[in-house]
TrEMBL record:
Formation of pseudouridine at positions 38, 39 and 40 in the anticodon stem and loop of transfer RNAs. The gene is truA. It holds the Pfam family PseudoU_synth_1. This is tRNA pseudouridine synthase A. It is an enzyme of class 5 (isomerase). GO terms for biological process: tRNA pseudouridine synthesis. It comes from SAR86 cluster bacterium. It catalyses: uridine(38/39/40) in tRNA = pseudouridine(38/39/40) in tRNA. Substrate binds at residue 125.
Amino acid sequence: MGWFIGSEAGTSASSRIALCIEYQGTGFNGWQAQRSAAVSTVQEALELAISKVADQSIKVYCAGRTDKGVHASAQIVHFDTTSERPLKAWVRGCNALLPKTVVVRWAKQVDENFHARFSAFNRRYCYLIYNNKTPTALLQSLVSPHFFELNEKSMHEAGQYLLGERDFSSFRGAGCQANTAMRNVIDLKVSRDGDFVMVDIKANAFLLHMVRNIVGALLEVGEGRRKPEWMKQVLELKDRRQAGITASPEGLYLVEVGYPDRYELPIAPWVLPFFKSH
């Protein structure tokens, strides 16, 4: 095959490699590896491919564990290996072995202090809604259909009440293992391009289901059932029962992870041809 799969290359002292991964979450039971062999996850597919290229068992660490059905255009992972491979071999070798719905976009050697999760200082998610009374067949599982007309300007106004470092208990999913509900939302925008409405949110970190719970509340505002200032009230109540539904995982994308400039990681722009305003 020509991409150093198996034992075609040598070994040396351990080195740390960072990868940018793009994947379609449909068909996977989330990111995190499960104990059951019958359950398919992105982590397991990636570790299997990297292990074959490295000719040794590899464990990867990611920037953020996505739920079942959630997609990513720029998930960042790292792994340690004693196998020597050109960077292009990690990319092309893994892509030759991975399912078509998982792609390695780039590879870069990083120093031992880099950690995909703990070195990151922010994450950005986008939630894409198809706002039309007629569902789309071509974009099934890639967008979240919503049949009632949405006012994206009211949704954007409501989202501004969430900016800053706050207690997000009202948007925290059951089973969340985070030590605190305090999170810093850096930016939140809601925009429209034709029938597509996008919620674009960046924070230092996210709680379990936090983005989907925020989107669920914004949908109530967008439909006109709540005023934008209701979002401030929900936040202050610190009660998950007051915040409305959890939006479906379809349409949610991890699109960016921020790291200090000293790591010099490549930028992988997110491109969706059917949405122009991002």
